[in-house]
């Protein structure tokens, strides 16, 4: 360690919490090593400061450019990899992404997260159970769901959509059952109008994410699960721009004909698509 690096590290030595001190100390060492390794020029330093400044300036309540930056650099998936290997039966986790909004409406079992379908559009019924690693049902698990509309945009990004459109909170029933009505998600491009967009263009990388539905599932006594369900045969499954795809999260959907039973249970009066998926949480 160089003299300057040592001196800077020492200047933080009064931080009592050892974990916090370690995080900061290692960050300083890594940054100093990087600067020495690449022999960073003054211009490159200024460019980096400017890039990070622009990234911060692009953030607001419904836009998180720093999470997007972490995602396209693979840092989000690296953090995920280190932290989520608790139990082999557990449903794999993936990136949280920048489009989550808290405090969305609590909706009844089987109800829809859209208010109206487009003409000819079929609803997507997602059903299954929330269970623990021993496949015991989990009652009252909180299921937060969010996804894009057919135009590839989330509410909050798109002024045309009500803020709670294609978002909602559900609770699992006694046997862990859940049922949600949505629409098929589409592949979409992450926002390209900020510094992350400039970076991807510069690197000649594409902006696409394969179609997916986001879930955040929480239950007392269990680890939170943040994950997606990806749709089979999407052309971007092998080149997700945020590196988030894991094979067990890829699902297929069935086209189902109108059924009076389904109409009575879920108020679906047409043909519909169906996905069945069991989410497995690990115990704390
Ligand atoms: Fe997403």
Written description of the protein model:
Strand 7 (212-218) and strand 8 (225-231) form a beta hairpin. The protein has two domains: 3-40; 76-281, Aromatic compound dioxygenase (Protocatechuate 3,4-Dioxygenase, subunit A). By secondary structure, it is of the alpha/beta class. The protein is built from seven helices and twelve strands. The longest helix is centred in the N-terminal third of the chain and has 21 residues, at 18-38. The chain has helices at 3-11, 18-38, 42-57, 65-72, 75-83, 195-202, 260-266, and strands spanning 124-132, 142-146, 167-171, 177-182, 188-189, 208-209, 212-218, 225-231, 250-251, 254-256, 272-276, 279-281. The strands form three sheets. Strands 1, 4, 10, 11 and 12 form a five-stranded mixed beta sheet that branches. It binds fe (ii) ion. Pfam families: Dioxygenase_C, Dioxygenase_N.
